[in-house]
Design goal:
The structure is a single chain. Helix 11 packs across helix 12. The strands form four sheets. Strands 8-7-6-11-10-9 form a six-stranded antiparallel beta sheet, with helices on both faces. The chain has a five-stranded antiparallel beta sheet with strand order 2-1-5-4-3, with helices on both faces. The chain has a five-stranded mixed beta sheet with strand order 13-14-12-17-18, sandwiched between helices. The protein has four domains: 56 residues; 110 residues, Beta-Lactamase (2-Layer Sandwich); 143 residues, Beta-Lactamase, CATH 3.30.450.40; 158 residues, 2-Layer Sandwich (Alpha-Beta Plaits), CATH 3.30.70.270. The chain is built from 14 helices and 18 strands. The chain is of the alpha+beta class.
Length: 515
């Protein structure tokens, strides 16, 4: 209520009370004055609440032009570009230069998305400038500064400006007149608008649940291949160490998924089941709500803490969220499974031949000279290893195809365990595997191949409780040590593998010049 309305109400009260007293004192002809005083007194009492109610119905002024505000922020910091995410109308991008490279725009947008997801500030110093981003899920903002090596003080000052901008976005959401009655489906659609992965959509659902219930939330999804349940997303108020944890079958969450009925843990019972490591038990009590897509249960939304009262506003919001989140998660998982089928070997879970060759071809293109004949900008080494199981046909014929499939899965796990996160392992044929080691010289590639050979030999594979010997041969080719043209890597590695087989198997051979 404005100050003018306050003083006006006080004046009405004083005049009204004076008129009533005078009218009563003088009597008869002053009765009209007493009535007028009563009216003024009534206005003085009722005006403040009326003004307050009118102000609340009136709502806030429409928000300022966010694009203009972000552009002012960009200019104030001498930045080339600016980004904002999490907005109802989608991502926002402003630029002071029409010729900014598309890769730079994508790089900045990706960094802002990361900041919006983890709630942290990020500074990336690149040749084209310094990217600075800050976020508070689902909002994020960022700038590309002109200086490639912006000072720490400058970066921190920009982070402060971005955090104020993000805080203004958050405040505008909370102060919106219909924020408490906003449709849950619409809000979920807004915060998942930029989500591209299953984990990102699950995280958005967990954060929205936390916003409604004011407590930590976790999303658990089922894995049809392993018949298990795994935690895929945690809100900011939940224990992040739970991320990626596979739950035991006796967990109340699993029971909710199996029965399709919400389950609440009792007292000292852990909502995530017995046998949880003590360090992960920040929260024991919780309620698991099944996530349903049609007739199928795809997982559960878990709210940590005591059960929410049925008549609480949050209870209705959580119920609507559960109804909306299930189909969204199921759709995202279907997309992921389709993508995985296109790039993964269904038996071993490794990359398939097509995806492997695509990755290696991309590496080859990055090393080729440009159209003008100039040398390639990247001249980093790389090693290719071909691995072939010895006497696999005999194993298949003796023990059967089921045993052969089990042996291939066994070896795939061994090979994957011997490499770095940046390395690529694929099954490219029946019993043949390929391993690509980017930025690894020949010596390092030979060490990895020998480690793989020893791991396979000593793995002690069994079939029906009976041990069966298993060995592998490896051929190694490296750029630029054994081949000068990266296009010749595959043929060189294949020739080296052939020599390993001819020399008695269960050995590692490196490519020779001319292979």
């Amino acid at each position: 209520m404005s100050g003018r309305a306050v003083w006006l109400a006080r004046g009405f009260r004083v005049l009204g009370l004076a008129a009533v007293v005078a009218g009563v004192w003088l009597g008869r002809s002053w009765a009209l004055l007493a009535a007028a005083g009563g009216v003024l007194l009534t206005l003085g009492v009722t005006l403040p609440p009326a003004v307050r109610a009118w102000g609340s119905r009136r709502g806030l002024l429409p928000p300022a032009d966010l694009s203009h505000t972000l552009d002012l922020l960009r200019r104030a910091n001498g930045a080339v570009c600016g980004w904002a995410v999490g907005l109802e109308d989608g991502e926002l991008e402003v630029s002071g230069d029409a010729h900014v490279h598309k890769d730079h725009l994508r790089r900045g947008a990706a960094l802002v998305q990361l900041a919006s997801a983890d709630g942290r500030s990020h500074v990336a110093r690149e040749p084209e400038g310094t990217y600075v981003a800050a976020g508070d899920f689902p909002y994020g903002a960022g700038l590309l500064l002109l200086q490639p090596n912006a000072s720490t003080d400058l970066a921190e000052a920009v982070v402060d400006d971005l955090r104020r901008f993000v805080a203004a976005l958050r405040l505008a959401e909370l102060r919106t007149a219909d924020a408490q009655h906003q449709n849950v489906a619409r809000r979920l659609a807004v915060i998942t608008g930029g989500a591209q992965t299953l984990e990102a959509i699950a995280r958005a659902g967990a954060e929205l649940a936390q916003h409604f219930a004011q407590r930590g939330a976790v999303v658990v999804l089922t894995d049809a291949a392993t018949a298990s349940a795994r935690i895929v997303a945690c809100s900011t108020a939940a224990d992040r160490r739970l991320q990626g944890l596979t739950l035991p079958p006796a967990a109340p969450v699993v029971r909710a998924i199996e029965t399709g009925v919400p389950v609440a843990s009792q007292r000292n019972d852990d909502i995530f089941g017995p046998g949880m490591p003590e360090r992960r038990r920040q929260e024991r009590v919780g309620v698991a709500y099944p996530l349903v897509d049609g007739h199928f249960i795809v997982g559960a939304l878990v709210l940590l803490g005591p059960t929410i009262a049925a008549n609480a506003a949050a209870a209705e919001q959580i119920g609507r969220l559960v109804m909306e989140l299930g189909p969204r998660v199921a759709a995202a998982r279907a997309v992921r499974e389709a993508e995985e089928r296109a790039v993964l070997d269904p038996l071993t879970g490794l990359r398939n031949r097509r995806e492997f060759e695509k990755q290696v071809d991309q590496e080859r293109v990055s090393r080729e000279p440009g159209e003008s004949g100039a040398p390639a900008a990247v001249r980093e080494p790389g090693t290719l290893i071909y691995v072939d199981l010895d006497h696999f046909k005999a194993l298949n014929d003796t023990l059967g195809h089921a045993a052969g499939d089990a042996a291939l899965r066994h070896v795939a796990g061994i090979l994957q365990a011997q490499v770095r996160d940046v390395d690529l392992v694929a099954r490219i044929g029946g019993e043949e595997f390929a391993v690509w080691l980017p930025r690894a010289p020949l010596e390092q590639g030979l060490e990895v191949a020998e480690r793989m050979r020893r791991a396979v030999e000593s793995s002690g594979w069994r079939w029906n409780s009976t041990p069966y010997p298993m060995t592998a041969s490896c051929g190694v080719a490296a750029y630029p040590e054994t081949v000068r043209d990266i296009n010749n890597l595959r043929s060189a590695a294949d020739a080296a593998l052939y020599r390993a087989k001819e020399a008695g198997r269960n050995r590692v051979e490196k490519a020779r010049p001319g292979d």
